[in-house]
Design goal:
426 residues, 8-stranded mixed β-sheet, 13 helices, 3-stranded antiparallel β-sheet, elongated, alpha+beta
Amino acid sequence: MLDIRWLRAEPEVVRGALAKRAPELPALVDRIIQRDEERREAVGQVNDLKAERNVVSKRVGELKQRGEDADELIESTRAVGVQIAELDEVVRAADEEIRETLLAIPNAPLANVPVGGEEQNEVLSTWGEPRTFEFTPLPHWEIGEALGILDLARGSKISGSGFPVLIGAGARLQRGLINYFLDVHTTEHGYTEVRVPYLVNSESMTGTGQLPKFSDESYQTERDELWLLPTAEVPVTNLHRDEILTLEEMPVRYTAYSPCFRREAGAAGKDTRGLLRVHQFDKVELVRYETPERGLEALEELTRHAEVLLERLDLPYRRVLLATGDLGQSAALTYDLEVWAPGVDRWLEVSSCTTFTDYQARRANVRFRRAQSEKPEYVHTLNGSALALPRVVAALLENHQEADGTVSLPDVLKPYVGSERLTPHG
């Protein structure tokens, strides 16, 4: 969430930043400032009344010691107590409304984020040349079904649409990709692998910004008040919730594999073929805690760690800077990595790499201390998909398909999959 002290000190700056996201957001800033002023006024009145009650209580004690009547003063302290209770309720209600509003307000975009919707996203760089085929490239679902490694119909029968089944070499390919990604991140990029729960509580979902805004897009186990992971970002970012790290412990770099579960509310009928939009998918995630001064440099590093994987898989890709209207709730700046998929003739997002500045850290209360004598500061959190599996698999099948129906595998995957190509019989 945003720092309320920033709203108090520079309300016009905050309004201007949030207006780049949506025109209705500055009004929420005004509401917070108004309620904050009411709260502070009520707190001041409470302090004055408590001071007054202390003076009267002392006077009552003196009168009683002398055996004099103190009933009138006692009655006045009771009246003051009623006033204090009423004002305490004003403070409590204001605190609750301020917190709820702050939780609803998205992060302020950084200055270099383009303003506008998806059409204002900027392609910053590209890598690789799309392959020229001597035949008409097939979409991945036709390739997968012909190879016998993808079964959409049976997945739909088991769970409904959006739950694909991978079979034989398809399952082995997916497992190989996960292991390869984790191996690269842990042995080359300096991340510590963690294995996390796939169910998290509401505090964890709130800490990373999934709640309250995205409750409709998440799966909840209502009896236990737990949520299925929308992304490993949630448990990994919350590993140090309500903790104060030392400077020596910084930066923190974690990588984690997890299945991810998303309802994709409002996405019906959009990109529903094959593996393009599914409700359950595998992903390897990168999460970092950084000092504020290293946040943007760390984002470049993290994004590069995802790009390296795409290059080694020989998948043409581009880096896209998202505009304000396309940013996630908690994001201050995001790079999307998109791979070219010739079978569907489009770019597919396979990674989003984001700096959240201190927005998530304030929600999850993750801080660090530069020295024992200094006050704690909020860390800057970052994360990125490195990579999300469904569209990577789709891009691999489509980019590396051959005229005979087989799919050649990049060299880095051959030892993980145990073969040089995917064929109809494994």
